C-alpha cells in the first residue's frame, strides 16, 4: 500500500477564495488517488501556535496572510505557498514553491470589460494600505499600469476597513467619493465584498447602477451576489486550478522532487457578467432612471405605473421613451428581468416552481409557465433540465412586444 501522508492546509474556510482552493486540492486527490490525511481548521489562525514543530509530512498555506508566512519561516517539512502575484519578483518568498493568482490579469479582465461597455472613466475601490492587504495593493498597481498605458489618470479610493463602529462614517465617505467622480464611471472593486458595499452606497445616494456607476468585483462570491439588489458582475479567479497545482507540486516534493523558487501564475477563469456592469451609453435619462428602479424591484411585483411614478413622468411618456430607446415596453423590461432571475434560480438546482414564481415577481406559477413557453420555447422544468446538460446562455433572447395591457394580463395570471 502507498504511504498515507499527513498534510496541513492552512486556509480560512470562511472565505470563498480559500474554499475554492481547497476544492481544487480535493479534486487533485480524487483524480490521482493520492492518499493524504488532511489537517484543516475552519479558522487556521487558532492553530498557528507551534505549527513550525508540526510532525506532519507537508503543508499548503495561504501566504497572503503575513501571520502565516512568519509562522512558517522555520518549518522543516515540504511547503507550498499560495497567494497573489507580485509586480516586483523580490517580493515573493525565497526558497519556497509559490502558486499565485495573476493579479494583473484579474484587473485587466475587469478593466477591458468596462472599456468594452463604452466607459472611459475607470476608478478602483480598494482596501486600506496594510501588510495583510498586500494583494489589494498589487491590484492597485495593475490598475494604475493600465490607466497610465491608456494615458488616463488613476483614481483609487481605499476607504476604511469594515467595522460596526465606523459603518455610517464609512458609507458617507463612499457616497462623497462617488459624487466626486465624473459620470458615467466604471469602478473595479478589489473584492466582491467591496463591490457590494459600493452598490449599497449607490442605492442610499440614489445613484443609478450601472447607468451612472458600473460596478464589477473580483471573486464571484455567491453570498455577496445574494446580498445585492442588482445582480453583481465579478471576475472569476482560477482558485480551483491554483489548488490543483499546489497539490501537484507538494505531491512531487513528497516524492523527492526539488522545486525551490518555482513560481506558477494562474490566470482568471473568466468573468460573470451581470446587471451591475452592463452599462449602455446614450440612453435617455428617464429610461436610465426607470431601468435602475426596475433592476432593484422587478421581482417584487412592481407595475408600469409605479415605475413612471418613480421617474416622475406620465406612464404614456415613459412608454414612448422605452419604445424609442429600447424597442420594447416598460412591462417587457420588467418581465425580462423576472425571467432572468427565474432562470438563474432554476439553473442552481431543484426548487419548487411556485416558490420560484413568488420569488421572481410572477403572479402565479401558471403565468411563469406561459412566459417561459412564449419567450424560451419550453417549460421551466424543461429549461432547468437543459441547463444541467449544456451551458445556459448568459443573456436571454427576450422577444417581448406582448402588446395590450400587459399589467392587466399579469394580474389575470394571478387569478388563474
Automatic annotation (TrEMBL):
One Gene Ontology molecular-function label: transcription cis-regulatory region binding
Q: Which organism is it from?
A: Pseudoduganella lurida
Taxonomy, top ranks, is: Bacteria, Pseudomonadati, Pseudomonadota, Betaproteobacteria, Burkholderiales
Ranges for domain HTH araC/xylS-type: 288-386
Protein name from the UniProt record: LacI family transcriptional regulator
The highest taxon in the source lineage is: Bacteria
Which terms are listed as keywords in the entry? DNA-binding, Transcription, Transcription regulation
Amino acid at each position: 500500500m502507498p504511504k498515507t501522508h499527513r498534510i496541513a492546509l492552512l486556509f480560512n474556510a470562511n472565505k470563498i477564495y480559500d474554499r475554492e482552493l481547497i476544492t481544487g486540492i480535493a479534486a487533485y486527490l480524487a483524480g490521482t488517488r493520492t492518499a493524504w490525511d488532511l489537517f484543516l481548521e475552519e479558522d487556521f489562525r487558532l492553530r498557528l501556535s507551534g505549527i513550525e514543530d508540526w510532525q506532519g509530512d507537508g503543508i499548503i498555506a495561504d501566504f497572503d496572510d503575513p501571520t502565516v508566512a512568519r509562522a512558517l519561516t522555520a518549518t522543516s517539512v515540504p511547503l507550498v505557498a499560495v497567494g497573489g502575484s507580485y509586480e516586483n519578483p523580490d517580493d515573493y518568498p525565497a526558497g519556497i514553491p509559490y502558486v499565485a493568482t495573476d493579479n494583473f490579469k484579474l484587473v485587466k479582465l475587469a478593466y477591458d470589460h468596462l472599456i468594452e461597455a463604452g466607459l472611459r472613466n475607470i476608478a478602483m475601490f480598494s482596501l486600506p494600505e496594510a501588510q495583510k492587504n498586500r494583494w489589494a495593493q498589487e491590484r492597485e498597481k495593475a490598475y494604475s499600469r493600465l490607466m497610465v498605458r491608456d494615458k488616463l489618470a488613476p483614481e483609487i479610493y481605499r476607504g476604511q476597513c469594515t467595522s460596526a463602529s465606523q459603518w455610517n462614517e464609512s458609507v458617507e465617505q463612499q457616497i462623497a467619493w462617488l459624487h466626486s467622480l465624473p459620470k458615467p464611471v466604471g469602478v473595479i472593486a478589489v473584492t466582491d465584498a467591496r463591490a457590494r458595499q459600493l452598490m449599497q452606497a449607490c442605492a442610499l445616494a440614489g445613484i443609478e447602477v450601472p447607468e451612472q456607476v458600473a460596478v464589477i468585483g473580483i471573486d464571484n462570491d455567491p453570498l455577496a451576489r445574494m446580498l445585492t439588489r442588482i445582480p453583481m458582475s465579478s471576475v472569476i479567479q482560477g482558485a480551483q486550478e491554483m489548488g490543483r497545482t499546489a497539490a501537484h507540486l507538494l505531491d512531487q516534493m513528497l516524492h523527492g522532487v526539488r522545486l525551490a523558487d518555482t513560481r506558477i501564475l494562474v490566470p482568471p477563469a473568466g468573468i460573470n457578467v451581470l446587471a451591475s456592469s452592463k452599462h449602455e451609453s446614450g440612453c435617455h435619462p428617464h429610461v436610465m432612471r426607470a431601468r435602475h428602479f426596475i433592476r432593484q424591484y422587478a421581482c417584487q411585483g412592481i407595475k408600469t405605473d409605479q415605475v413612471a411614478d418613480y421617474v416622475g413622468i406620465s406612464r404614456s411618456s415613459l412608454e414612448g421613451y422605452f419604445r424609442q430607446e429600447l424597442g420594447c415596453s416598460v412591462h417587457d423590461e420588467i418581465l425580462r428581468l423576472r425571467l432572468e432571475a427565474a432562470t438563474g434560480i432554476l439553473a442552481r438546482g431543484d426548487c419548487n416552481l411556485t416558490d420560484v414564481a413568488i420569488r421572481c415577481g410572477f403572479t402565479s406559477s401558471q403565468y411563469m409557465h406561459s412566459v417561459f413557453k412564449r419567450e424560451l420555447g419550453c417549460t421551466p422544468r424543461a429549461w432547468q433540465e437543459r441547463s444541467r446538460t449544456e451551458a445556459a446562455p448568459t443573456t436571454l433572447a427576450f422577444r417581448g412586444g406582448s402588446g395590450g395591457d400587459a399589467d392587466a394580463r399579469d394580474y389575470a395570471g394571478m387569478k388563474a
